[in-house]
Amino acid sequence: MNEYVASLMEDVKVKNPAEPEFHQAVQEVADSVSLVLEKHPEYRSAKILERTIEPERVILFRVPWTDDQGSVQINRGFRIEMNSAIGPYKGGLRFHPSVNLGILKFLAFEQVFKNSLTTLPMGGGKGGSDFDPKGKSDNEMMRFCQSFMTELHRHIGPNTDVPAGDIGVGGREIGFLFGQYKRLANEFTGVLTGKGLNWGGSLIRPEATGYGAVYFAEEMLKTRGESLEGKTCLVSGSGNVAQYTTEKLIDLGARSVTLSDSSGVIYDEAGIDREKLAYVMELKNERRGRIKEYADKFKGAVYTAAPTPGEANPLWNYPAQCAFPSATQNEVNEQDAKNLLANGVYVVSEGANMPTVAEGVHLFSEAKILYGPGKAANAGGVAVSGLEMAQNSMRYGWTRQEVDDRLRMIMTSIHDSCVDASKRFGREGNYVDGANIAGFLKVADSMLDQGVV
Ligand code: NDP
User: Fold this and answer.
1) pLDDT given for residue 152 in this prediction
2) Within 10 A of 40 (CB to CB), how many other CB atoms are there?
3) For residue 187, how far is its CA from the centre of ligand 1 (angstroms)?
């Protein structure tokens, strides 16, 4: 089976050159799924894994727009429609200068298995643009979103492909995108999730990814008869996922001591309480400022500039028991993983997608810590997006409590599926293999049922 995975990976690298993040994501899934293929030759003869690696459709388009000075700007737009075996394509849009085809393919590939784990009927997709939202006015943001949607609208729909937010795409951007879709399609429909509450959004959607990552950590801790209460936690990022991870940690009596952005890291030994978190939300969501200001505002907080790429991040080098990487892919390098383990971290619940490099994942597995990979731990966001779609179809809205209860139930069910699958295939306690296998099986069986398409 190792030979099969090696030859598959060779093909993937030849066919998809210069896409290291995509190779990394495929390698991890292929390693786990090889345990299944050994026992189930029917998946191998139907080339299920080979088919899941090839996107069903890739859309690449020009996004021209005019800045506030009247100059014409051009960005690249993408939508990867990866797999629709179990439902319409579903996955976020990312606006960040680092966006390219390989990064979106890795995210779309991960999304297929993550969505399968949620128990809801959603296929996998991802999209976005290399547009940089930093420093843009509201009007520039609106013009960009309108131009982006002018092309994207012909490819999506409530029963075809339902995008949501991701890095750089929050409530403001979803509003501009939805407005333009509605205007072009002449229909009011649940074509995007993460919508505003007044126009079809779901309660708890903004909170869902962060809350879900914390619920997942609680479930992992429960297997050792422990809880988050009193634990010291490291959280990276300061965007949507980091903010609501911090909020839920406060709710559950943990002490969260770090946040970051691409410029630097803050460490607040006293803990980030509700008042400090409210300051961060205003700083990041309204003033769109830098996290450094936190250290100017609150006595005792220490600011360190971001490390140069490849170096260890000081954020992962503080004493703690739990870590919630919530910024971006590969933000935990091998040295960071070593530092985390050396400083006492034994719970890692990933809010971000693939934030740990392969060598780091290996170290966590060897150390047998409670390591919840992104595709399981951060599935709460897309799960509540699925609940938003259900509410839109019913033209009805659930209460905050109802949605939060369902989110909790879904996170528990994802946790239990990972544990069951890892046990069934002889990898007990390994959430990486558990998540990949449980996510794969549902998609693979559906693909078998639907023939060679
Ligand atoms: P936001 O744009 O709200 O926040 C992103 C945060 O990460 C910001 O603090 C940003 O800093 C930082 N960041 C982004 N890129 C880099 C980088 N290259 N280096 C250092 N810091 C960086 O995004 P979200 O919170 O929504 O997303 C965070 C992660 O969670 C992503 O991996 C995303 O894919 C994942 N995720 C998000 C979901 C959601 O529902 N939103 C669902 C599931 C996963 P700066 O402002 O300086 O760029």
Assistant:
1) 98
2) 17
3) 31
CATH 3.40.50.10860-classified regions of the chain: 2-188
Please give the number of the atom of ligand 1 that sits closest to the Cα of 238: 9
CA 398 – CA 132 distance, rounded (Å): 35
- Mutate-to-test residue for ligand 1 from 134, 136, 246, 262, highest number of ligand atoms within 8 A of CB: 262
Share of the chain above pLDDT 70, in %: 100
DSSP conformation class of 153: G
Q: Is 387 helix (H, G, I), strand (E, B) or coil?
A: helix
- Which of the residues are catalytic? 126
How do residues 49-67 score in pLDDT, each as one tens digit? 999 999 999 999 999 999 9
Checking if the pLDDT of 1 tops 90, the result is no
Which residues sit opposite 92 in a β-bridge?
164
Q: Which residues line ligand 1 (CB under 6 A)?
A: 98, 165-168, 170, 209, 237-242, 261-263, 326-328, 351-353, 378, 381
Tallying the residues shown for the chain, one arrives at 453
Whole-number Å distance, alpha carbon 2 to ligand 1 midpoint, is 34
Ligand 1 midpoint to CA 230 (Å)? 26
Cα torsion 258, 103, 374, 330 to 10°: value is -50
For the sheet containing 258-260, what is the strand order? 258-260, 264-268, 301-305
Question: Class assignment of domain 208-372?
Answer: alpha beta
Closest Cα to residue 200, out of 185, 178, 222? 178
Question: Per residue in 395-441, pLDDT tens?
Answer: 999 999 999 999 999 999 999 999 999 999 999 999 999 999 999 99
Closest approach atom of ligand 1 to CA 329: 32
- The pTM of the whole model exceeds 0.90: yes
d(CA 389, CA 398): 12
Q: What is the pLDDT of residues 206-257, one digit of tens each?
A: 999 999 999 999 999 999 999 999 999 999 999 999 999 999 999 999 999 9
Instruction: Give the per-residue pLDDT at 198.
Output: 97
Positions of CATH 3.40.50.720 in the chain: 208-372
CA dihedral 383, 328, 306, 23 (to 10 degrees): 160
Q: Tens digit of pLDDT for each residue in 134-182?
A: 999 999 999 999 999 999 999 999 999 999 999 999 999 999 999 999 9
Centroid of ligand 1 to alpha carbon of 448 (angstroms): 35
For 351-375, give the DSSP string.
Answer: SSSS-B-HHHHHHHHHHT-EEE-HH
CATH of region 2-188: 3.40.50.10860
Ligand 1 atom closest to 94 (CA): 34
pLDDT recorded at residue 2:
86
